[in-house]
Design brief:
By secondary structure, this protein is α/β, with parallel strands linked by helices. The chain has a single domain, classed as NAD(P)-binding Rossmann-like Domain (Rossmann fold). Helices cover about 45% and strands about 15% of the residues. A 7-stranded parallel sheet has the order 3-2-1-4-5-6-7, with helices on both faces. About 40% of the residues are buried.
């Protein structure tokens, strides 16, 4: 983003709200948005030390940072955050629904409690956050849902995760219709990105190399790759893009047997 655009963003005093915002993909998005002149509102769940360091980094970039600690799958905690945000009169450029959880269950190992938590956090929470906060998003603003390639390519493991991410892709289309023309809604469909969620894979040298060899771009994705896509989608350059699933996977989804 050019210098003049950053200054204009600062003068508008707009914020970007990111769930799961203090680590991995969320952190990369937050840093990119702060660099572009937006204040940051980030929701995190556990690591206070990590969150404090994150906040300091945002402030070093000259932007304000508001942190909320909560388990968004708990409706009481979620509503407390929503109500505080509304009462604080924030003006949002974008809502980024990034918080998520993965369970590696197979058909025979499904646990109903775990299943319901995955569905709630990955699918239901993005819908509820959008419903409750879209009135704070400025005209021309965006909702960005962070999805996964597992929402369009099946596997015998992680059934709840696949179901939630597949649903999120199609709910993105419904939300885009509901909120147009004021707000655009799009979904990032990510491939293998180096985050805490994929640590067991990318920390295993053999598995990591196999994934790289399967990927036409011959590398893992980085959180910054997703942040760049989000930056584009909330910009005026993407003003005619809504209801879309944008695949950021280095081409690995082109393989039939991924």
């Amino acid at each position: 983003m050019d210098y003049i655009s950053v200054i204009m963003n600062q003068e508008k005093n707009l914020s970007v709200l990111i769930t799961g915002g203090t680590r991995g993909i969320g952190r990369a998005i937050a840093f990119k948005m702060a660099d572009n002149g937006y204040d940051i509102i980030a929701v995190y769940r556990n690591n206070d030390i990590e969150a404090s360091a994150f906040s300091s980094k945002i402030k070093e970039k000259g932007r304000n940072c508001k942190l909320y600690k909560a388990d968004l799958s708990n409706e009481e905690e979620r509503l407390k955050i929503v109500n505080d945000i509304k009462q604080s009169n924030y003006r949002l450029k974008a809502l980024v629904n990034n918080a998520g959880v993965y369970r590696s269950e197979t058909l025979d190992s499904i646990d109903l409690k775990d299943w319901e938590r995955v569905i709630r956090l990955n699918e239901t929470v993005p819908i509820l956050m959008t419903k409750d906060l879209h009135s704070l998003i400025e005209t021309g603003g965006s909702v960005i849902n962070i999805g996964s390639l597992r929402g369009i390519i099946s596997s015998t493991e992680g059934l709840s995760y696949q179901a939630s991410k597949a649903s999120l892709i199609y709910l993105t289309k419904s939300l885009a219709k509901s909120l147009a023309p004021k707000i655009r809604v799009n979904c990032i469909i990510s491939g293998f990105i180096k985050t805490d969620m994929t640590q067991l894979l990318h920390s295993d040298e053999a598995i990591s190399r196999e994934i790289e060899s399967m990927t036409p771009m011959e590398r893992w994705g980085e959180p910054e790759d997703i942040a760049e896509a989000v930056d584009f989608l909330i910009s005026e350059k993407a003003s005619f893009i809504t209801g879309q699933g944008i695949i950021i996977d280095g081409g690995i989804g082109l393989l039939k047997n991924m």
